[in-house]
Automatic annotation (TrEMBL):
It comes from Gordonia desulfuricans. Residues 373-478 form the Pyridine nucleotide-disulphide oxidoreductase dimerisation domain. Disulfide bonds join C49-C54. Its cofactor is FAD. Residues 11-340 form the FAD/NAD(P)-binding domain. This is NAD(P)/FAD-dependent oxidoreductase.
Amino acid sequence: MSRSGDNTDTYDVVVIGGGPAGENAADYAIRGSGRTAVIIEDQLVGGECSYWACMPSKALLGAGAVLEAAAGLPGSAPRVTSTRPDRDALLGWRDTMTSHRDDASQVRWLDGAGIDLVRGRARLTGEDGVVEVDGRRIRAREAVVLATGSTASIPDIPGLRDAAPWTSRDVTAVVEVPERVGVLGGGVVACEAATWLTDLGATVTMAVRGQALLPAMEPWASAMVAEGLRARGVDLRFGETFGHVQRVKTRDTGPGRVHGGPVRISLTGADGSRADGLEVDEVLVAAGRRPATVGLGLETLGIDPTQPLDVDDHLNVAGRGWLYAVGDTNGRAPLTHMGKYQARVVGDVISARAEGYRLDGPRYRALADHSAVPQVVFTRPEVASVGMTEQTARAAGIEVRTTELDIAVAGSALVRSDYRGHAGLVIDALREVIVGATFVGPDVAELLHSATVAVVGEVPLDRLWHAVPAYPTVSEVWLRLLESLH
Ligand SMILES: Cc1cc2nc3c(=O)[nH]c(=O)nc-3n(C[C@H](O)[C@H](O)[C@H](O)COP(=O)(O)OP(=O)(O)OC[C@H]3O[C@@H](n4cnc5c(N)ncnc54)[C@H](O)[C@@H]3O)c2cc1C
Ligand SMILES: NC(=O)c1ccc[n+]([C@@H]2O[C@H](COP(=O)([O-])OP(=O)(O)OC[C@H]3O[C@@H](n4cnc5c(N)ncnc54)[C@H](O)[C@@H]3O)[C@@H](O)[C@H]2O)c1
C-alpha cells in the first residue's frame, strides 16, 4: 500500500467483498508477485457461505443423513434408536462449523496471503479505479473487483415484510425450532431447509408456485426430492403461493429465533384463486436471491444497479477495463465453487494484464459458467447435476439422446439395503459426448466430479468406455449407463 498527498491509499488490486469469491480473487491476483491487494468487507470475512449459507446448512444436514444411512444397513440398524439428530449437539456442531460467527481465522488467512483488510462499506466514486470507505479514498492501480454477493429476495406480498419472516440467514442460524413452518418457494434453499427443519422436529408446509420443486433440475430428479420430502411429512402445495400474511405480534428476537406470534397465511392458486388458509409459528421466505449491487455507487459509472452486472468471460464489466465482478454479484452461476472459479480466472486475468501478457488461452475465460456448472442439492435423496438438462440441451439446438436408469449395482446394494437412486445422461448425439448428467440418491455428491470431467473434457463415449469403474462401488452406474447407450 502506498499513500499519496491527497490522503488516498493505493493498492494494485482492490476487492469489495470478502466472501469466497473476493478472497480468492485477491489471492490469485497477487500470488507469487510483488503486487498489493486490499479487501474491503463490511460484515465478516468469509461471506455468506461461511456463516449463513453453505457451511451451516451442510452442518445441519449431515447428522440426519448419517443416521438414515446407518438405519438402512442391517448390521447397524439395530443400534440406531432414532433417525432424528440430537438437537443441542447438532446446533452446537453448526456453531463449530461456522466458528461461532467469528472471522478471526479467515483474517489470519488474509494476513498470511499478504492481503490487507479494511472493515467498512465500500462505494465506487465515479472516478476510474477509486473507491471510498467511510470517507477514506482507496485507489486501484490495476483493478477493482466487485465481489459483493447477493441478498435474499422478499416478494411483494401483502403483510409479508411486516411479519418479519425468516430468510436463509435465520433458518441456517436456527436456535429456536418453530413447531410449524410455512415455506415460500420450492428451490434449493426451501428443499434443503425443509429437510433439516423436519430433522429438528418441525412440521413444514411448502407453497411452490410452479408444478415442480427445483425447477432447474431434470423433472425426474425433482419428483424424487418431492417424494423424499413427503415421506418426511412435508406438505407440498404445488401451484400455490402466499396471498396475504398476517402476524399477531412481531418481535425483534434476532436471527434464528421465532420472530413473534403465530402467522396466518392465505394461500392462493397461481391464477389468483383462493386455495386455503394456514397457521404457522414461523414463515421462511426462500424465493431466490438478488445480486448485492444496490448502494455500491454503480450509478456514478452510469451502470443500472438494479440489474445483474453485465460481465464478459474475463469477468470484466462491459466498457470498464479496470472493473471486474465475480461470484453471486454477476448472477452467472450463484454457487460458492463457481464464484471461486471465476475468482481464479479474474486473478489470472489481472496478473496477465499487469505483467503485459496477452489473454490467450482458455485459462483466462470463465467457460464453465456456460455449460458445465456442477451443483449438489443436499436433500434426501441428494441431487448431483452438471451441465445441461434434456430441456436446456434441446433449447440450445443440440440433437439430444438421453439415457436414464435406477442406480442398482453391487456398490449401492452394499452401502444400504434400502438404496434407491437414479441416474441420467444427456448426450450430444452428433458429437457423441456427454453434455449433462444427473444423479439422485444417497451420497451421489461424490459421483459428480467424474461427470464434470467427462462434460468439460468432451470425452467421446467410445473413449469413456475404457474408464473402468472399480468393483464394488456406486460408480459402476457409469458402466450401466454406457451399456444402455451401446
Ligand atoms: C442457505 C444457503 C445455502 C447455500 N449452500 C450452498 C452450497 O452448499 N454450495 C454452494 O456452492 N453454494 C451454496 N450457496 C450459495 C453460496 O452461499 C453463494 O454462492 C456464495 O456465498 C457467493 O459467494 P460470494 O463471495 O459471491 O458472495 P458472499 O458470500 O455473499 O460474500 C459477499 C461479501 O461481500 C460483503 N459486501 C457486500 N457489499 C459490500 C460493500 N459495499 N462493501 C464491503 N463489503 C460488502 C458482504 O458482507 C459479504 O461478506 C448457498 C446459499 C444459501 C443462501
Ligand atoms: N446446495 C446448493 O448448492 C445450494 C443450497 C442453497 C442455496 N443455493 C443457491 O442459493 C441461491 C438461492 O436459492 P433459493 O432456493 O432461494 O432460490 P431458487 O432460485 O433456487 O428458488 C427460488 C424459488 O422461489 C420461488 N419464487 C420466486 N419468487 C416467488 C414469488 N414471488 N412467489 C412465490 N414463489 C416464488 C421460485 O419459483 C423457486 O421455487 C440459488 O442460486 C441456489 O443455487 C445453493
